[in-house]
Amino acid sequence: MSDATFIKTNITDAKLVSPDGGKRLALGPGVDMFFKISGDEADGLFDYFEIRVRYLGGPPLHRHPDQHETFHIIEGELTIKVGDQLVEAKAGDYLFIPKGTIHGYVNLKEGTTARAVCNVAPGGFDKYMEELSQYMSTAHPPDQARINEISAKYGQIFAGPPLAVSMGLMKGR
Question: Is this structure's pTM higher than 0.85?
Answer without folding.
Answer: yes
